[in-house]
């Protein structure tokens, strides 16, 4: 029971960190809007644009079919949860360009919850377990190679900042875990709110937070 309580305490701490990140993001957005309002203050006022009616068109057929299959189809047998899938990369591209590329090869960006560079030559994609096969298959079809099954985000060798070079081995292990913890908290801050608890639960089960 004490172990469960400790893990629950860790989860509560994680959500507190996420709340602080959200507050920082909100403050950044507020400052941006304030700056924009000052920039446009001197411009001539324009008549308000007419609001467009919200589209009532159904989603594209392939997306609707995927939703029906996922919600009403036969259970896949894949355990619920989320995981990072890692791929090697030769160049660090802007994340918006990566998402545009994913869309171009037929992947659903809404199911790619977060993209990061845990180290300089590795890209991580946060996916639901039942989307991993479709994602990796799409990559393979266009020559994207195979995921890095042996990549360990907790490996102290990932600490490439020279300021960590002099740390003794035990502190390097601790620092690598701290860096991974912060990376997962950052990912949580970008996950859509309805999914955040279930993603955090997966991180907790894998001891990433």
Secondary structure elements and pairings:
Elements: H1 2-40, H2 61-72, E1 82-88, H3 95-104, E2 112-119, E3 122-128, H4 132-141, H5 169-190, H6 193-205
Helix pairs in contact: 1-5
Account of the protein in words:
The protein is mainly alpha-helical. The chain is built from six helices and three strands, in the order H-H-E-H-E-E-H-H-H. It is globular, with a radius of gyration of 21 Å. The model has no long low-confidence stretch (mean pLDDT 80).
- Widest beta sheet: strand line-up: 1-3-2
Count of helical regions: 6
Strand content: 5-15%
What's the alpha carbon Rg, rounded to whole Å? 21 Å
Shape: globular
**Low-pLDDT stretches:** none
Question: What features would you highlight for this structure?
Answer:
209 residues, mainly alpha, 3-stranded antiparallel beta sheet
Provide a quick synopsis of the model.
The chain is mainly α. Helix content is 51%, strand content 11%.
